[in-house]
Design a protein that fits this description.
heterodimer, A: 554 residues, MetI-like fold, B: alpha/beta, D-Maltodextrin-Binding Protein, domain 2, ten-stranded mixed β-sheet, 16% strand
Chain lengths: 554, 346
């Protein structure tokens, strides 16, 4: 027989009372940020209840199998490749001394600077009939052997080689800051280098690796340009097909919602797996990693391994783009590119700052609030990255336009004047949209460094009566600064390349380099797209190199 | 940290400067016109500038794909700033019309210049330029006398010889829509099956890639858009120019319906805030002056018959075009996509 009191504890009244007791202003802030960021996503989920359009049966019958099998194939193959490229390089760079290490450290981030659809075009161009490979072979008098890259594996390779830096950046941050004590302990116990890596370092680096990997997989899922060009039907090409070719936005939204479920399942699964292990590292002030000196021959081998992904992810596409740029220089280049670059730089900088602030606010307000479900809710904010930009744009436009209509109505009733849109079609709406889309990019590196900061010091500080805010700036901020900087770089570079959102939401006067590149590429003038693409790379390279210095030289 | 803040302030100032200069310009001119366009060629930029100079009307442009622009317009509703919608195919214009985003306009200039099959029956949109979908064949392996129509490409003799891009492409969708309109759905379904059977490889790449594959011997025939052949013949890449020398162009269906064409065109937005300027703008685009810019720099066929085509196009010769009303392409577009999916045309 149940005690009367039992019932009482779980009565709605008591629950509400507890909720009131546990809530603090951080709960409200967390809730506010989550709502702001999740609003477009919720809009899309809400649309889901309207059900798919009439072509849904047609899609299930003729296409869905293909979408699922191709998307799952890409997820698996890309995971493996990215793990291989990203973890190997970050470990070698962090652990060993070898020639050109300092240059390679930032070169390894640069593949991110080329939009993946441009990498796809560059590879297709290089391996095409009459492409660079054939020209080179012809030059040496070798018979032309064509490598067919325009297939499922080719797509997985291109996406992995251009996205692996996400894993590299997050994993390297862990190795640089956290691995030293572990390595020393392991060495003292007489464990070999190889075993230490696989038995100790790799399992402990898991949150960092996963953080990068989730970004890669979300980006893989939402790639449209490369998949479409290579003729591989994925969920995202399906979303575009049902939206534009079948003229059913509701079916497209239904498909994106399915995609969201898939991503959310991935994230929850990872969380559930991680729950068994506690990752808090007690020694937050651990020293920088000690770099191992090895023999000349070994150094050469390491150099070769590390340069390979740089070669395939950056130098080869870059060379192809430069070749095209030389061919098309006279007809494409003009002085407006300089202004365009500055404008793009400004937008990316602003967005990266806003997004990093949002992400940090979200992570810490969720941490400081005491209500369990708000903590979990904060995860909702990262979903934006998995949704194709064009769909996010719709998710943004529905609520901002509603707000605009309300504001316009208000102004008309107050002053009698009619005005145009106030938020929609301004820089504000664009930056908001970017923040929604790229929150995950900022969230993961910051979260993974935050996880490694032990709670002891901030807790001590708070016990001594120092407030949350001050504690953050005095103690936590210096400890997670590397994570925040990584987040900044990643968002910055992502904004430089962003396309569909920019196209739909940009104000009349604003233009970006990516838009210029797209104008050519979408018209099958891939060669002409080379010059704006090169400008994107250079614009991205500046902060990447600068911030990498900050990251490493702390 | 300080550095960051300084940089941010600089960025912000940069933006605000930009905005004010734009606004200054606007106040000095005779109003403005807001263009939502899928076309993004240098020739268009040139024409926008020319229009600004001649009329004093400021041209504001948003570039995106037609689908995204249509979606944007319909969400913006009555307050949409869009005056003119420009797309690169008739199907999208028809969709904009059926979504109630365009308005009927009456203009004597447009009526006199544009032939009736190249505009909407209710004057919601007007074609600006034409492109033909043709067959590119390998000169050394194919006798052009063996070619006749698109319909005949399903013949067994072309097994493993045919190259064509994916069915996601609007030009393929329009081609099939025209076949549905001309010959009916049952025939169209068989045609899709026949083409898929004859494909040399699963569809991938763009139109240029299909032509390159013919030159390299992966197949003998490619179905492509004349516009891209024009770009290739005048490409800055010598390899591409070389490729076009080994292929010939065949305009199919000359004895029957005429070669399938598609158009890029423009319509005035239903809630256009600057309707008069919008009409002036479209009238300008079909004027002889503007049409010759289209014709000479962009390898498209002008809709204004007084304008001569470029040398590249002249070399291909005259052809008879399919004169079905282009609205039908839009009406049959969805059916076409479903037939492609059912027939396994990727």
């Amino acid at each position: 027989m149940r005690e009367a009191g039992d019932n009482e504890i779980f009565s709605i009244k008591n629950r509400l009372l507890r909720l009131k007791r546990d809530s603090n202003r951080w709960s409200l802030i967390a809730l506010f940020v989550v709502l702001l960021i999740a609003l477009p996503i919720l809009t899309i989920i809400f649309e889901l209840f309207e059900g798919p359009g009439e072509s849904w049966i047609h899609i299930v019958k003729n296409l869905l199998g293909q979408y699922i099998s191709n998307s799952v194939y890409l997820l698996i193959v890309c995971s493996l490749l990215v793990l291989l490229f990203g973890v190997t390089t970050s470990w070698l760079v962090a652990r060993y001394e070898f020639p050109f290490r300092k240059q390679l450290e930032w070169l390894l981030i640069l593949p991110l600077a080329i939009p993946s659809y441009i990498v796809a075009y560059a590879y297709a161009g290089a391996f095409d009939y009459g492409g660079s490979l054939e020209l080179i072979q012809r030059f040496f008098g070798i018979e032309f052997t064509r490598i067919d890259i325009m297939n499922r594996f080719g797509l997985a390779f291109v996406l992995s080689i251009s996205l692996f830096p996400y894993v590299y950046v997050s994993t390297r941050a862990f190795f640089l800051n956290q691995a030293n004590n572990l390595l020393e302990a392991s060495r003292l116990l007489g464990v070999g280098e190889f075993r230490t890596f696989f038995k100790l370092i790799l399992p402990l680096a898991r949150p960092a690796i996963i953080a990068g990997m989730i970004l890669v997989l979300m980006e893989v899922l939402n790639d449209y340009g490369a998949a479409q060009y290579f003729g591989v039907n994925t969920f995202t090409t399906g979303i575009f097909r049902s939206w534009f070719s079948l003229e059913e936005p509701e079916t497209a939204i239904y498909l994106s919602a399915l995609l969201l479920v898939l991503v959310f399942a991935l994230i929850l699964f990872e969380k559930w797996q991680r729950r068994k292990v506690q990752y808090s590292n007690e020694s937050t002030n651990s020293e920088r990693i000690y770099r191992k000196q090895t023999s000349k021959r070994k150094q050469f081998v390491i150099f070769c391994i590390v340069i390979t992904p740089v070669l395939f992810g950056f130098l080869i596409p870059l060379a192809q783009l430069i070749y095209w740029a030389v061919l098309t220089y006279s007809s494409v280049f003009d002085a407006t590119f300089v202004i365009l670059s500055l404008q793009t730089f400004g937008i990316a900088f602003l967005t990266a700052t806003v997004t990093v602030i949002f992400a940090t606010l979200l992570i810490f307000s969720a941490k400081w609030n005491r209500i369990g479900f708000i903590k979990n809710l904060s995860r909702l904010g990262v979903l934006g990255y998995a949704i194709p930009g064009a769909v996010i744009a719709i998710g943004i436009m529905i609520p901002t336009l509603a707000l605009d209509r309300w504001l316009m109505g208000l102004i008309t009733s107050l002053s009698g004047n009619t005005t145009g849109f106030i938020i929609h079609g301004t820089l504000f709406a664009l930056v908001y949209a970017y923040a929604v889309r790229f929150l995950a990019v900022a969230y993961n590196p910051i979260e993974s460094t935050t996880l490694k900061v032990s709670n002891a010091i901030p807790d001590a500080s708070k016990t001594l009566g120092v407030g949350n805010f001050k504690t953050f700036f005095k103690i936590e901020y210096p400890l997670i600064k590397t994570g925040m900087l990584s987040a900044f770089i990643l968002v910055f570079v992502d904004v430089l390349k962003e396309l569909p959102l920019t196209l739909i939401l940009k104000p009349f006067q604003v233009n970006t380099l990516a838009v210029r590149a797209f104008e050519y590429a979408s018209d099958e003038r891939v060669m002409e797209a080379a010059i704006p693409s090169l400008f994107i790379i250079f614009t991205a390279a500046v902060p990447v190199i600068f911030l990498n210095k900050l990251l490493v030289s702390k | 940290m300080m550095k960051n803040i300084v940089l941010m302030v600089v960025a912000l100032i940069l933006f605000s400067c930009n905005n004010t200069t734009k606004k200054d310009q606007e106040t000095q001119t005779a109003g403005e016109v807001n263009i939502y366009t899928h076309r993004h060629y240098e020739s268009d930029q040139e024409l926008f500038k020319l229009f600004e100079e001649q009329s004093g009307i400021k041209v504001n442009v948003i570039n995106a794909s037609a689908d995204e622009l249509i979606q944007k317009m319909s969400l913006e509703g009555t307050k949409s700033p869009a005056d003119v919608l420009i797309t690169v195919d008739a199907g999208r214009l028809h969709r904009a019309k059926t979504s109630d985003l365009l308005q009927s306009i009456s203009s004597k200039i447009l009526d006199s210049i544009i032939p009736s099959h190249l505009k909407d029956t209710e004057n919601h949109w007007f074609a600006l330029t034409k492109r033909a979908r043709v067959i590119a064949y390998a000169r050394d392996r194919v006798n052009p006398e063996d070619l006749s129509t698109f319909e005949a490409l399903t013949d067994e003799k072309w097994q493993n010889k045919l190259l064509i891009r994916s069915s996601g492409n609007i030009y393929n969708q329009s081609l099939l829509a025209s076949i549905i309109a001309n010959q009916g759905e049952v025939f169209a379904k068989e045609w899709v099956a026949g083409i898929v059977k004859n494909m040399a490889r699963t569809p991938r790449g763009n139109d240029r890639d299909q032509v390159k594959a013919v030159a390299a011997g992966e197949g003998d025939l490619a179905i492509v858009n004349t516009y891209y052949i024009g770009l290739m013949e005048n490409s800055s890449n010598p390899e591409e120019v070389q490729v076009t020398k080994s292929i010939g162009l065949f305009f199919p269906n000359q004895e029957t319906t005429g070669t399938h064409i598609n158009v890029s065109g423009a319509g005035v937005a239903k809630y256009a805030p600057n309707k008069e300027n919008a009409i002036k703008f479209i009238e300008f685009l079909v004027s002889e002056e503007a049409q010759s810019v289209f014709a000479l720099s962009n390898y498209e066929y002008p809709v204004n018959e007084n304008v001569e085509v470029s040398q590249t196009l002249k070399n291909w010769g005259d052809f008879k075009e399919d004169k079905i009303n282009l609205s039908l392409l839009g009406e049959n577009n969805k059916k076409a996509v479903i037939l492609f999916d059912e027939g396994g045309w990727r």
